[in-house]
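Support case: S-adenosylmethionine complex. Customer-provided input:
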Amino acid sequence: MDDPAFDVETDLQTQSILLAAANHDIPSLRNLLRNSSANVQDSETGFTPLHAAIAACEPDSEEDTQQSKGHTNGDTKSANEDAKPHEVEAANKTIKFLFENGAIWNDLDVNGETPGCIARRLGLKELYELCVDAGVRAELLLSRLDEYQPLGDAESDEESDEDDTKAEEEMEGIEVVDIGQEDVQGDESTENPAYLASTLTFDRDRLLDGSANGVMMEWETTLMQRSAELLLPTSGLRVLNIGHGMGIIDGIFQEKQPKSHHIIEAHPDVIKRLKEQGWHEKPGVVIHEGRWQDIVPGLVEKGELFDAIYFDTFAEEYKALREFFTEYVIGLLDPAGGSDGEGGRFGFFNGMGADRQVVYDVYNKIVEIDLFEAGFDTEWETISVPNLDEQGEWEGVRRKYWVLENYKLPTCSFIG
Ligand SMILES: C[S@@+](CC[C@H](N)C(=O)[O-])C[C@H]1O[C@@H](n2cnc3c(N)ncnc32)[C@H](O)[C@@H]1O
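Agent response - structure generated as follows:
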């Protein structure tokens, strides 16, 4: 039952918190948060206290705004000079205080912006980094908790209950962000089994699934070309590619005349096309039909070793990629392999979170940490991506899975 008096009071409380956040007034915030949450949202703007604290640094005089626009030419990424240093410092402290009090880093306002998006748009690098770091902490904790549940099962019931409560407490203020591999949030058609059962359409320059989601597109060729160069610098090496798609990277691998070239592919339509194109007759090619999850353990058991491994699947979450490099790459990559005998190399399509810069940045830090924990050093190369909208790439595609200016290309090798 709605109580209008209660609604008014809640709204007043929300407005007071947002105002204190916008004023960077930590003592008032401390008072207000004693019996309220750091994640209240304005019903009209969708602003949380984090949004308010960051947006308050926007230059507000017309002159300032003109200047800011002039500086940035519509791209506000370098507007930092326009914000007053003392104001940014106060915002910095407020944001830290809000995060310490459970503020969620990736809530969206009505414009579809997270607090980090606003900081980036206003060129507030320091505040942006605070949001990225909070995202990394939250997502790492969540993924560790995910692993931690089954471990809890082995403990006594009493201990498990205590641990569950602790875990729930720690989870307060943390929200999962979907950083799935080219994944569409909440869309069943892009879950792996549904995708594998859907009918694909092959066009000259794209591969679409049954719901018109882009599985692979020709604009990615530059990225595939560079990955292949870094993974297979010379001929005569052994390569494993997971996910054939349009066969772009496999075509480039073939040009490098590998000694052996294994391909794992799960989708029946891709397998059919791959056969029609005579891939099974190409030199050194071994095709494994099925999901990598079902094929890879057999390769490890057989003791197959590779100089290079590339991973680019579709409709799988980040968890799958992490499982692959944590559990299997170590058994498949030759530590004495590669063109110089200094160890094989592993690469993957780095497209997670690529529909929002802040999520991409969070994800890149997380993947680097996870790779390091799994025993890999990662080298990053930045490759600029043309404006895909201007090129009409997304026409007829359900959702843009890439909106960023730069691709960060990872190449991993064993630590030491
Ligand atoms: C993005 S495409 C790969 C594009 C490829 N890198 C290229 O250069 O054309 C992803 C491919 O992974 C396949 N795939 C998806 N899930 C898979 C799984 N679990 N195991 C093996 N292949 C999978 C898809 O059918 C699709 O062919």
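Confidence is low (pLDDT under 50) at residues 63-79, 151-186.

Case will auto-close in a few days if no follow-up is received.
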